[in-house]
Amino acid sequence: MLSFQVLPQGTSIPLDHAHVGRTHSGQQRRAASGPRVTYTLVLGKEIKMQLEAVTGSCLCGSVKFEIKPPFSGFRYCHCRRCQKATGSSHASNVFVPQGQIAWLAGEALISRFDLPGAKRFSVWFCSRCGSRVPHKIRERDDYLVPAGLLDNDPVIRPENSIFWGSKAPWYVEPREIPKFTEYT
User: What percent of the chain shows pLDDT beyond 90?
Assistant: First the structure.
């Protein structure tokens, strides 16, 4: 991982057009040559550059993979399908172009469920422990990677919450509830 610079909140930095950056519309631009670099604004305070791959694995460690930046996106999905598939209030999904994921172990252990009648929705999971694992999104060139599987910081942060109108009625924003570092 390269270093990052902490700036006072509200400080703006013009990105050199010779390097990778994001246009005002969010489109990625990159240098004509050299390594691909992703600049990510985190909490309005930090700019980080990422060049290294991020590894991930299922709960039992049988399925292992590696994803390489830049990533296509990071979203929280509150749709009912994601609630059912995760058993939680939302899914935390990183999106990765197809050519930027590699299976390191356990690919033969992956089972798949394609929801009948759904255009895109699928669940791939480890047949040993049941953890969801990355899956190719039907009709797109991206893989969906459940963010909780990642072994280290992907640097990118969630950009938005989708299907907010479907959020669970019991969902409470994390900033509104007490936090503990262990069981209570």
Answer: 64
Each residue of 141-171: b (16+ CB within 10 Å) or e?
ebbbbbbebbeeebbbeeeeebbeeebeeee
60-107, pLDDT tens digit by residue?
A: 999 999 999 999 999 999 999 999 999 999 999 999 999 999 999 999
For residues 95 and 136, what is the distance between their CA atoms, to the nearest angstrom?
10
Domains by residue range for the chain, with CATH = 4-50 (no CATH), 54-168 (2.170.150.70)
- Total-model pTM: 0.72
Going by C-alpha positions, the residue among 114, 79, 108, 112 that lies closest to residue 93 is 79
Q: How far apart are CA 7 and CA 62, in angstroms?
A: 41
The string of pLDDT tens digits covering residues 32-69 is: 333 344 444 445 444 455 568 999 999 999 999 999 99
